[in-house]
Each structure stands twice: as C-alpha cells, then as structure tokens.
Amino acid sequence: MAQFLQYAFSGLTVGAVYALVALGFTLIYNASGVINFAQGEFVMLGGMVTVFATAAGVPLPLAALLAIAVAVLVGVALHLLAIEPAKGASAVTLIIITIGASILLRGLASIVFDKRFHALPAFIPGEAWRVGGASILPQSVLVLGGAAAVVVLLWVFMSRTLLGKAMIATAANRMAARLVGINTVWIICASFAVSAAIGAIGGILVTPITLTNYDVGTLLALKGFSAAMLGGMGNPLGAIVGGLVVGLLEAFGAGYISSAYKDAIAFLVILLVLFVMPNGLFGRAGVERV
Amino acid sequence: MTMQTLLRRHGVVLGLLALVLVLPLVLPSNFYFRIATLTFIFALAVLGLNLVMGYAGQVSLGHGGFFGIGAYAVAVGPTHFGIPVWAALPLGALLAGLLAFLIGRPILKLKGHYLAVATLGMGILIAMVFTNEAQYTGGPDGMSVPRLVLFGWSARGPITWYWISGISLVVAAWLAMNLIDSPTGRAFRAIHDSEPASGVLGVNVARYKLIAFVLSAVFAAVAGAYLALYDGGVTPRTAEFLRSIEFVTMAVLGGLGSVIGSVVGAAFLTILPQVLTVFHDYEHVVLGLLIILFMMFLRDGIVPTLARLIFRRRS
User: Fold this and answer.
1) pLDDT for A289
2) Chain B residues 15-54 with a CB less than 8 Å from chain A
3) pLDDT digits (tens, 9 = 90+) for B63-86
4) What does the alpha-carbon distance between residue B89 and residue B95 come to, in Å, rounded to a whole number?
5) B284: in domain
C-alpha cells in the first residue's frame, strides 16, 4: 500500500506537468487549429529563465514572473511572426513551422543559456512528508497545487471574463466569432500567450524536482501531445485527465512492470484506448463533410 | 495513354537517373559522395512515407521504427542467427511490411491527429525494444553490422554505396510513379481528397490505406538497412522518434504528393546541416529559421510550389 501510494505520488507530480502541457496544446488547437510542437519549449523557458535569473541574484518570485513573461513574449512572437503570416496553409505545413520553431528555440536556448542540466532549490524547504507510509516532497504538493490553481484560474478566466468568452467563441466557430465583432487574430494571439504562460508555470514548478536543460521540451511536447490525444483533442478536461493518466501509467509501469519500458507501457495503453475509443476518452466523434 | 502522361511518368524517373549518373562527375571528394549517398537513402524512406502522407493522406510519425527494423535486421540477423547479410535485408523489409500489415488494420481506422499519436506510439515502442533488448541489440550503444558481400565482392565505401543507393532510389521512384498512375494510385488520391466520398464510390478505403502503409514500411526498412550497412553499425538513435519527425519534415518540406519533392526534401535536410556547421553554435537556430521561412513562403512544399510558379509564368 505504501509502495502504491509512493508510485501514485510521483505519477501525479509528473502527470500534473504533462496535464499543463496538454492543456497548452488544447488551448492553441481550439483557437487556431494548430498543433503547436513548440509547446514543450515554453516549459523549458519557464525553468531555464528562472534558473538563470535567480543565479543572477533576482529574487525567486520575480524570476518566476520574468520567466513567464519571456515565455509569453516568445509565444506571441511565434504566432505573429510565423503562424499568422502562414494563415491558410495546410495543417501539416503549420505543424512543420512549429517544429522549426521548436528547433530554433532550443538552439537559441543552448546559446543564451548553456547545454548543462540545472536545478532550482525547492520553493518550500524541508523534509519529505510522510503520508500512509509513503513520502511526498513539499515541492510535489506545490506542483499539484499549482497545476490545480492554473486549471481553476483558467476556468474562471474562460467562463467569467469577456476575453475568455471570446476565446471560447473563436474556438467554436471562427467565422461566426468574427461576424459578431471578435478580433479573432487578437484572440488567437491571446491563446498563444495563455498557453505559453501555462507551460512556463509548469516548467518553473517542476524544475526543483526533475532538473531542466535546453533540451527538455522535446520529450514534454511528445508526452503532452499524447496526453491531449488520449483525453480527446480539443477537450480541456480530457487534457488534464490524459496528462494525469499518462503520468500515473509511467510511474506504476516503472514500479510494477519494468522501468526500462515505462514509456512503452504508457504508449501501449494509449494505443489500446484509441483502438476502443478512436476519439480519445472525452472526444466527440467528428462528422466529415463530403 | 497520352504522350503527356508518358512524359510525366518517365520524365521524373529519367531525370532522377540522369542526376544519379551525372553527379559523380562533379562530386569532388568522398565526403560529397557520402552526403549524396545519405540523401539517396533518406529519400528512399521519404518516398515511401510520401505514398502514405502525400497520396493516401494519412499521417505517420512512426516510420523511424520501420527504418530501425530494417537497420537492425542486417545487424541482428547475421550476428545472432547466422543469416547471410544479403538475405537479412529482404527479411527485414518483409518483417517491417508484416508488422505494418498487422498494426495497420487497427491503427489506420484512426483519423488525423489520433493516427499521428498512434503511429508515434508504435515507433517509440519499436525503438524501445532496440534500446532494452541488449542481449540481441547491444542496448543503447548499438552494435556493429557486417559488410554486405555479394558473390565474393564486398560492398564498402561511399562510392559503392552511392551507386547502390542511387540506383535503388531510381527503381523505387519508377515503382512509385507506376503505382501512382495505376488504379491503386487513383484510389490513394481519392482517399486523400475525401475518405467518405471514395468509400461511397466503392473504393475499399481500409484496404488501400493498408497497402500504402505496408509499402511505405518496406521502403523505410530497406533504407534503414542501407544506412546500417553503409555505416557499419546501428544504435537505437537510428530508430528514435526524432528520425520519424525528420522524415515527415523532409516529406512536407519537399512537397507532399511529389516524388521529386521527396528527394529535394531529403537533400535539403541532409545537406543543410553540413553547410550550417560554418555557423557553429548557431547551427540549429539557422536550421529552425530556414524550416520556418521555407514553409511560410513555399507552403505546399518546395517542389509543388516552385512547379506552380514556373507553370503559371509560362501560360
């Protein structure tokens, strides 16, 4: 039981980060129809900027804010400079553009920062807490709490503010949204910004546990994308559940079956789920117009 | 058959053949032969992928896995099972085709991004086997590959492999062009344009998607075997998912649905990193930037977009 709890804690911690990445995918996909493979780089930027800002003597909260700001700027720039000018190109062309952006950002990060691994001190110092025979780091609780806070804030933002509602309207039907006077270019830009901020927050929170370097984004994008698809593309709840499930599968797979095959177990389950539910756990079946 | 289709079909293949024949006259050193050989090998894999993506309209992010099966077949077969190299190569291709056939049925029911993630998972599972089954594959360090020996003649060095891969590419292009102009090829394109519509018209959608998928897996496996034999070794990096992403990028950059596009896309991403080494640390920055710019300005891929521009000017 203690062992089970232990795996569950580590699975949920990693899963929370996957969930944030998946949520970022979902936001951009809903607003613009683009699968943004540079999503993982936002997480990397969150961690790396915070590490280097704190090393330069900036207090942690300020460094974290700075990191989020940098990620948001990069997200907005990605949209305005690369995605928006290619408006009307096919989905696969846009995906390759985001892959190019991901290579570019990784390259820049390796120059501006370096290629080494970096850690941050835990935000809440102290010993691991004991829960039911298992131990959990305060930082893990912070990751989970932070992810939950992001989700709640996002929900409030989407359902209570005009900007959020405009984002939902744009996701539902871009043409109709434009007809009622919503500046959809601006809204898509905002969704890149929000998505970048969410990724960066994930990166900042998890860096004390998992370390970071210029290259962490690739794997995170891969896992986040898979999680979003597992949940059902375009469904925010699906993204969160998908992320947590992928994290838990990895942890339990590594613990009970084989640590060498932990990624394999997660992907095997994703494949099986998709065979039974071709639109993911929460996705709706689309109807193709002929 | 009109003169025009004849010219189009054979023009591409003949042009490619001419390129393969003439290039050695201008390539100054073994280094350039190596780059050309790598381009041909990757173009072979991308050509297969293009059948799936460009003609049948199905995304695959898992072709690095098939590439790896071909590569490891010529490594593991001779080393552990005593299979001669010349037999291990087609055996690997057969194995990749068989796997594609078995996995393809359930996977190809998925659409769009769901198919992408399923093929991605498949590729990662395959790569993981190569990394973890160290008693056969040498684990993360990989293993060496014996030379291909045919009738007492050992195939080694960039110039030999230039000819093997170049001629193979021409043959593959000829096969692909024939396929595209056959009823099967027309069925591929119908599926690309609209799956429900082609289903209604009596095209067996599942069957043709599977054909394209299996063929592309075989192409990728042969290419993988060539790379392993040429390099004299394999590591799990041969099959990693970045390889799959690279193939897709090559196919899209060169132009989906274009045989020449496959070669141009493969050349672009093989030659460019060599050229960009002059930028040292900035290599990846420039590479990423160029991919973005090319896709922004040549949206349908390099070859189709340029072809359209030239055609428009003429008429």
Assistant:
1) 53
2) 53
3) 999 999 999 999 998 888 988 888
4) 10
5) no
**B84 lies in which domain range?**
3-241
Q: Select from B117, B248, B252 the Cβ nearest to the Cβ of A225.
A: B117
3-state secondary structure chain A: CHHHHHHHHHHHHHHHHHHHHHHHHHHHHHHHCCCCCCHHHHHHHHHHHHHHHHHCCCCHHHHHHHHHHHHHHHHHHHHHHHHHHHCCCCHHHHHHHHHHHHHHHHHHHHHHCCCCCECCCCCCCCCCEEECCEEECHHHHHHHHHHHHHHHHHHHHHHHCHHHHHHHHHHHCHHHHHHCCCCHHHHHHHHHHHHHHHHHHHHHHHHHHHCECCCCHHHHHHHHHHHHHHHCCCCHHHHHHHHHHHHHHHHHHHHHHCCCCHHHHHHHHHHHHHHHCCCCCCCCCCCCCC
Interface of A with B in 195-234 (CB under 8 A): 218, 222, 225-226, 229-230, 233
ipTM, two decimals? 0.88
Q: What is the pLDDT of residues A155-187, one digit of tens each?
A: 999 889 999 899 888 888 888 999 999 998 899
Per-residue pLDDT at B3? 64
Q: How many domains does chain B have?
A: 1
Over 80: is that where the pLDDT of B312 sits?
no
Residue-wise pLDDT for A61-70, tens only, equals 999 999 999 9
The answer, yes or no, to whether residue A210 has pLDDT greater than 90, is no
pTM: 0.87
Collect all residues of chain B within an 8 Å Cβ-Cβ radius of residue A280. 114
Query: What secondary structure does DSSP assign to B228-240, as a single string?
Result: HHHHTEE-GGGGS
Backbone φ and ψ of A102, nearest 5°: -65, -40
Residues of A in contact with B197 (CB under 8 A): 290
pLDDT of residue A286: 60
Q: Does some domain include residue B221?
A: yes
For chain A, domain boundaries: 21-214
Instruction: Return the pLDDT at B200.
Output: 82
Whether B281 maps to a domain, the answer reads: no
Whether B278 is in a domain gets the answer: no
